[in-house]
Amino acid sequence: MAATGLLVLLLISGVTTPVDNAIYDLHARIWRYTPDDDVVIIAIDAKSLDAVGRFPWPRSVYAQVIDRLTADGVRGIGMDVTMSTPESDNPHNDQLLADAMRRNGKVVMPVFAEAVALGGALQEALPVPPIAQNVAALGQVDVAKDSDEIVRGAYLKAGLGSAYWPSLALALQQLDHTAPTALPGLRDPLDNDASPYLWMRDNYVLLRYAGGDGTFGRLSFTDVLNGNVPASLLKGRWVLIGATAEGLGDILQTPDSPMPGVEYQANVLESLHRGLLVTPLNFIAQLVVASVALVIPLLLYGLPGLRRNWQLLLLSALVALTVCVVLLRVFYLWWPPTTCLSIIGIAFLAWSVFIRGPSRAV
């Protein structure tokens, strides 16, 4: 009973979370995979800035690229570029871009939360009306940073008041009719009872990163703009357009290495497409798994080779770590093992001090 209470207390407190995160990070670095060639990044890189000019660019430039991608037969286009205010120099360019998006029919634009004023209420930042009215879908680009600023996962749904916007990657798959019917991820039980002014997130998943920055195929924006990219490199592929140039756009810290936001979006899209997303267990499931992992060694105690308490301690730790790895590798479920390991260590310490110690004294 005491062990159960301590287990619950440790789970609620989150005191073991940093160690669990370190364990997941270590595993993520050795659990890489080779991505397929179905996701391509069109990079707003230093070469493109030199050729096109200072950022932000005229939206007519994006319209030209989208028309080229349409002609090349891409599978879908995810724009990791914000366009929530009209173009100041030439507002007509907004309509040019909107028309190009309408002709393509498979473009997803980002939506995100921003404060109306410093410390004020949140609002959803949508593309300007001409673009919002002609884009195929909108996808939220919320980034799931942990308390240590490392991005280990993603929210497949998010929105103001309720998590109704799909992620950028999920929106692309929904347009392609390849999205999973039942979304994976840890659910938020408060999603339906939230304030309309709160940014809500749901279906949290951990990512199995393919690798560090530069893992996915990358083409320079200016090469696509000038028609220097063979159509064979783009036909039938999802295309993500975003910034990779230094000082332009977000650089996210992942368990492996820093990467630009568009590379992060590529990892989400590839993982979702291939069914590689990891679902963290909820509180009850964590409690059940930990209880089972603690009971198994006790049932085996007394068998040949398990007659000493240090052997039981070692077996208990091995069982907990094995359960963690099997759930992750086979079932794509994440069970943080450190709470269970802490209980094992505390129990062994208590036995050594309060039971073994006095008995030796006698």
TrEMBL record:
Residues 16-300 form the CHASE2 domain. Keywords: Membrane, Transmembrane, Transmembrane helix. Pfam families: CHASE2. The chain crosses the membrane at residues 283-303, 310-328, 334-355. InterPro entries: CHASE2 (IPR007890). This is CHASE2 domain-containing protein. It comes from Dyella dinghuensis.
